[in-house]
Amino acid sequence: MPAMEPEKSNTSRAEELKQLANEAFKGHKYSQAIDLYTQAIELNSENAVYWANRAFAHTKLEEYGSAIQDGTKAIEIDPRYSKGYYRRGAAYLAMGKFKDALKDFQQVKKLCPNDPDASKKLKECEKAVMKLKFEEAISVPESQRRSVADSIDYHSVEVEPQYTGARIEGDVVTLDFVKKMLDDFKNQKNLHKRYAYQIVLQTRELLRALPSLVDIVVPEGKHFTVCGDVHGQFYDLLNIFELNGLPSEDNPYLFNGDFVDRGSFSLEVILTLFAFKCMCPSAIYLARGNHESKSMNKIYGFEGEVRSKLSEIFVELFAEVFCCLPLAHVINGKVFVVHGGLFSVDGVKLSDIRAIDRFCEPPEEGLMCELLWSDPQPQPGRGPSKRGVGLSFGADITKRFLQENNLDLVVRSHEVKDEGYEIEHDGKLITVFSAPNYCDQMGNKGAFIRFEAPDMKPNIVTFSAVPHPDVKPMAYANNFLRMFS
């Protein structure tokens, strides 16, 4: 009998850890919840509930690859445990893998035939798959697709006499116009589509002319600011400008991808950034993030928002312009700035990044994909991505890349951080994230980094979220996805 006691204590201790993890989860402390579920799993790895709960916490942190693995493990332990299929299905859904999600929700319905919630979600999933099949059937191959931008003449779009919002006189976007537009946006007024066309089309011309890797020169005695993900949080973007000044030739910014999706003021954010780019191209630099893509915008709200506030044609137009965004920047030959991270192969040179043909939707593998999707990891070497796309890379990979390209530092974004930033890899890699209280629930700070030339030491400034109108995050997102968030 005494031999059974340690096992019993393991089981009861695992249950205690699960309860603590559940509490952390309720408090939106998802990383802490994952740590506690992991400890419970180490004590009792045959409990499907622990794996499914950890999958849910991973989903909240957008670690969909890990969520799928945990959901699969829960199903292996107990093939009749509906939550395992449910959690895995939700993660597939968040990655846009609707057909895989459908199979899991069919299984949930089979296991819980009388559950109205399961029926409702299955119906929504079936609808999403049907819509996808229809879109695939009517889509035109990339090679035959005509440019939407080339078919638009914004001069011919009439502005109604009753329109009282910001106006661009002639072809030049001025600071006065941008300030008036920001005031209108602050008061939840829309910009006339004539001026929206003009800003987006002029930005497209500017971006198309740039290389895939842009070199930025900051003169001695001048400064330069790098911001991370803004994710449609327009009022927090305004706060950055309050704290650090509006973009100008003497106060330049780089916004490092993920301008849109999640937050419900994504259109205001993107038109603001694009307008500053038109006003003064050297005042603002823009990099592509993994959310500047059709597949993400379809799921996470930007597409629905653009359709609601402007029109269907703008959905196509933004998709085209996002394909023109550069993939990375190098500041003063020393600081490499990229949205996601580094590569699955050694020996990648800056010239390889310059040579990428970026004018396309992001592929699911290769250098372009990894630039947009990868994440650092604490252990050396490379590992699978928590997200299910890209990879994880260690400090040795960062160090080697910097040495081989005569660089000092990697700055990247792409991940929520409690303090708005995190310094890793022996100080050689900084993550900066500029969407405080992400999705109105994470409680994180935002941050930006100011570099002063010539020493280019990173000076990190953190800030908290500011109030915004009562429009929930993901208000325009795929109906179906909102049911699971």
TrEMBL record:
Q: What EC number(s) does the entry state?
A: 3.1.3.16
Keyword set, alphabetical order: Hydrolase, Manganese, Metal-binding, Repeat, TPR repeat
* Enzyme type, top EC level: hydrolase
Tell whether S-adenosyl-L-methionine is among the UniProt keywords.
Answer: no
Q: Where are the TPR repeats?
A: 14-47, 48-81, 82-115
The Serine/threonine specific protein phosphatases domain extends over 191-467
Q: Which SUPFAM superfamilies does this one have?
A: Metallo-dependent phosphatases, TPR-like
Q: Does the keyword Hydrolase apply?
A: yes
Family recorded in the similarity comment? Belongs to the PPP phosphatase family. PP-5 (PP-T) subfamily.
Q: What is this protein called?
A: protein-serine/threonine phosphatase
Task: Supply the source organism for this entry.
Answer: Datura stramonium
Q: What is the lineage of its organism?
A: Eukaryota, Viridiplantae, Streptophyta, Embryophyta, Tracheophyta
